[in-house]
Amino acid sequence: MADRWAGWEIRLSTSRGVPYFFNTEAKKSTWEPPEDMTEEEIKQLPGAKEYLKGEGVQGGVHAGQVRASHLLVKHRDSRRPSSWKESVITRSKEDAIELLKEFQAEIDGDPQKFAEVASQESHCSSHSHGGDLGWFGRGQMQKPFEDATFALEVGKISDIISTESGVHLILRTG
């Protein structure tokens, strides 16, 4: 393997239960393989045999997984009715849905606009990444969220989805 990939290895995320790429020298982690790394080079990384389920990234790291971004609006009956945006959330679920409908109209199916609105308006900490939640598999998200995400085509945005966390718009990105 080329020296340019020295320090890279594959580890298993304890929070998500999925593999990720880690550079031990730079102390940098990423869900995506380093740019320009081939499938063959990925298979040679330390940890590849232990954590990749199949052949490289397509059949391994992300097999059976989806990637999505979301825009979350919490309401007073949410599991945790507070966020980075509002310390105490008092709106009703109906008001949260109306607010999300306004965002939905503003986004109008545009993934770039989705990221912009999510970064400013989402009550999830993923707002700092345009709503990106990264890759996840079955059993890692609340069931209504998971079902909606797996049912979406890549590049499509869901209708309003309700979970214990609040109400969401979901953009499937992978």
UniProtKB/TrEMBL annotation:
It is an enzyme of class 5 (isomerase). CDD domains: WW. One of its GO terms (cellular component) is cytosol. GO terms for molecular function: peptidyl-prolyl cis-trans isomerase activity. Residues 63-174 form the PpiC domain. Its EC number is 5.2.1.8. Residues 7-36 form the WW domain. It comes from the Eukaryota. PROSITE patterns: PPIC_PPIASE_1 (PS01096), PPIC_PPIASE_2 (PS50198), WW_DOMAIN_1 (PS01159), WW_DOMAIN_2 (PS50020). Keywords: Isomerase, Rotamase. SUPFAM superfamilies: FKBP-like, WW domain. It catalyses: [protein]-peptidylproline (omega=180) = [protein]-peptidylproline (omega=0). One of its GO terms (biological process) is positive regulation of transcription initiation by RNA polymerase II. It holds the Pfam family Rotamase. InterPro entries: PPIase_dom_sf (IPR046357), PPIase_Pin1 (IPR051370), PPIase_PpiC (IPR000297), PPIase_PpiC_CS (IPR023058), WW_dom (IPR001202), WW_dom_sf (IPR036020). PANTHER family: PEPTIDYL-PROLYL CIS-TRANS ISOMERASE (PTHR10657), PEPTIDYL-PROLYL CIS-TRANS ISOMERASE-RELATED (PTHR10657:SF4). This is Peptidyl-prolyl cis-trans isomerase. It comes from Coprinopsis marcescibilis (Agaric fungus).
